[in-house]
Fold:
Amino acid sequence: MDIIKIIFAIILPPIGVFLEVGLTGAFWLNLLLTILGYIPGIIHAIWVISKN
Structure:
């Protein structure tokens, strides 16, 4: 399942984070990072997925 989360993290970072942690603060932070800049959203999503 982690490979699917990583793929989602690259295509749509908030979806990858949502699959890992749900609607927590990490999801909202990632949504904000993705809106402000796509690359920071990807980096944060991969970090959250690899941390858990």
Remarks:
- The helical segments are 2-11, 13-21, 25-36, 38-51.
- Residues 2-51 form one domain.
